[in-house]
Structure formats: structure tokens, C-alpha cells
Amino acid sequence: TLNARTLGSLGRLEELGANAESHGIDIIAVQEHRFYHPDNILKYHQVGSYQLVTSSASKNTVNSTVGGIGFLLSSKASDTLLTGDLNARLGPDESKFTFNSKTNRNGEMLKDFLEEFNLYTSNNSFMKPKGQLWTFESPLGDRAQIDYLIFRKKWRNSVKDSRSYSSFSSVGSDHRIVSATVKLSLRSSKKTKPHPIKMIDWKEVLSNPDMSKQFTIEVYNKFNLCLLLK
Q1: Region 2-182: CATH code
Q2: For residue 93, which phi and psi values (nearest 5 degrees)?
Q3: The pTM is what?
Q4: Where would I find the beta strands (DSSP E) of 115-217?
């Protein structure tokens, strides 16, 4: 995931595609691309072997183009992610491994969203030095972790690593790329053995006098042994 700040400047989009290809990244969730196309719900931009799918940016009060989210997809990628310009800060109370000192309002809403849909943020799930956690740097030099990769919890064991880094700095954003290494584990879940009491056919026990007598004797002997041991 990457807040690009803008991709409209000359060469920015091509630079993004080149970086994605050189690092072997198939999907990038992009925020603040600033492509304005209000008449099209989605727009498709060809970027070498990649395709950027965008929803339109908007205009602010002084008619400047702001915002806009989308996906940069390799030729083998499919549409299996969500994206948003969240600006959420998760503090130590909400996340064990975080750069932030406290949770902000957007962070509270993100926490509720994660809990409701059984999701988690991968780049808060691994012990990393602070330099691999922050994702945004303000003009004054203040840093924060406000960009996240989100997965369903059932795939937690398939996510082997997640961090942010500066290899996309040539794109010119004040945000850093956030990545995850995923190795799918498709083994079937282990079936738990049912409790022995649930395996008894009670209709058969009640309808069969011999079986009912045998069951009564076995229960008596078992509890009698317990009393003796006590």
C-alpha cells in the first residue's frame, strides 16, 4: 500500500510501475493518485505490464484536485484487496508493535472495523525496529504509522513478514511503501474428535434392553470405582 501524494506529474506513474516490477510486487493499493474523472466510476490506466484501476479524485474549495484511491495490478493479480486513505494511528493499547504513542479518532474507527470483520493489520504484527514501522513523514520531520495492510485473521499464518521501507522514495511521496510477504498455507483444518458422550446412540440404548442394562452396569462400575479411589 502506498500514499503516492500524486501520480499526475510527468513520469510518476511509470516510476511506480517500474518500482513494482523491480521488487516483484503484484498489487499496490494506491492513495492520493489525484486523477480526476468524475464521469467514470472506474478508470483503467495501462502502465507497462501493469494496470492501474482508479476511482476519481475530487475537487476542493479552490478547485484543486485531491485524494483518489485505486489499485496497481500486475498481469497475474486479481481484485482481492480493499483500499482507503485511512490516516489512522494505532497506539500501544491497540497494537503490540506500533510506531505511534497513542490512538487517534481514525484509529478507534479502524480498530472497530477490524474487530467487526475479523481482520488484522499485518505491519503491526511483527517485531521491527522503529525505522521499519513508520509510514509517513511530515514537512517538519514528524513521523507516524498511518498506512496499513489488512488481512483476514484466518490467513495470519500465511503472512510471513510485513514492514514499510523507502525503496519507492523516487516516486516523490511523503509516505513510504508498506509490504507483506505471503506464503499461502492451504492445508485442511484438523477435525476435532467429538466428545464420547455425543457418540452414544441414545435411541438405541433406550430401545435395546440388553444394551440399556450393559450401559447401566458400566456407569455404576465407573462411579463405584471413583468412590473407592476417593
Answers
A1: 3.60.10
A2: -70, -25
A3: 0.59
A4: 119-121, 136-137, 143-144, 150-152, 159-165, 177-182
Regarding beta strands 27-31 and 2-3, do their DSSP bridges make them parallel or antiparallel, or are they unpaired?
A: parallel
Please report, as a single letter, which amino acid is at residue 116: E
Distances (CA, A) of 175 to 76, 106, 137, 171: 26, 18, 7, 10
Span 43-53, pLDDT tens digits = 999 999 999 99
Q: Give the separation between CA 111 and CA 89, rounded to whole angstroms.
A: 10
Residue 187: predicted pLDDT: 67
Distance CA 171, CA 113 (A): 30
Residue length, the chain? 230
Cα–Cα distances in angstroms (integers) from residue 4 to residues 17, 110, 175, in the given order: 12, 21, 7
CB proximity list for 66: less than 8 A, separation 6 or greater: 32, 34, 57, 58, 59, 60
183 beta partners: none
pLDDT band, residue 140 (cuts 50/70/90):
very high
Q: Are 71 and 78 in contact (CB under 8 A)?
A: no
